[in-house]
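Researcher: Good morning. I'm working through a list of sequences from a screen, and I'd like to move beyond sequence-only analysis. For each chain I'm collecting a predicted structure so we can compare shapes side by side. This is the next one on the list. No need for commentary yet; just the structure.
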Amino acid sequence: MRSVLILSALAAVTFAIPRPQDIEYAPADDVPAPDPLGPDYSSTVEPVDYDPAAAVALAIAAVEEAPPSSTPYGKRSGTCEPQPPGHGPVPVPDTPDEFLADGNFTTYAEYAVTPPGYVQSFSNLQGSTGGLGYMGLSTLDSYDVAECAAKCNAAYPCQAFNIYFERDPTVNPSYDDSCPNPPSLTNIKCTLWGYPVYAATAKNTGQRRSRFQVVIAGSNGYNKDLLYNTPPGWTGPVVLPGAINAPSPNGASTYLGYKFFEGVYDPAVCTAACDATTAYNSRHPSNCKYKVCRFVNAYVLTMNDVPQGFYCSMYSAAWDPPYATNTGQTRGTDVYKVVDSLSFFNGTVDSGTTCYSN
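Model: Good morning. Structure tokens for this chain:
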């Protein structure tokens, strides 16, 4: 599985408090451009391995400066081993060009019905989605958008899915003369994502495996209407038009700073980071006082419609949607956007005081 979402290695970056609350683009800019992330082309099933409790625990650890890491993947060796049977049509003649030109795939993609609770993001592309937030892969018996949506609905916090036809080999191609370019089969693949998908993320157009060419057709992407679990002790979410840019009444800022994560977008990670910030501050008071994190703004930052990660901006007081005015910016030829911005409020009583009189 080619993914930076490995729960034992959820990456987080902490920075000093910037000018209230300018988006610090540095952590997103520092996200490396790895090999395309997503399912391995030789896989037909990659189970969802996201563990919300583990992600929350790692968010708490990130407040104490847990180090980031990632997981590489290696090159496959060819063995002529038979592959699982496909379920889609195989064009005749059996060539990559004929696969890309086959009108059957176009028909399936263009006539697919958008499932309830989703918005179609792209249709009938010849590339599959890659990028941050990959959650898992299933191979379907038919081009069933509703079935793929049901898998996303069952895998919290899946936010989007991509369904497509993929030309794959009937046997694992060899790198000698045994079976370098075997006949093809057609798999119908359903991938799940923890970030929204866009046409700009559908850049995995296939690969060459020895002399066999993997290609993709009929690729459709769907984004879920925002719906997230509300952690205990919190209220929300409130959908925002952008990131919060709160004023400083009488010069007193309520902004506590932020965390940046590259894992699956799960706002529960942000509320956990906020709670952990309060706990950390309570252990490091100043003159018997500490700042309580009561409000968090979670949002995804995209660059040219490709998600770069998500931010958790933390505050000691709640702010209403009219203050969510930071929607991104253009930097040179790159367009940054704030998407899927949500806020949560914790009304738990905490005086922010460690010293009490008798």
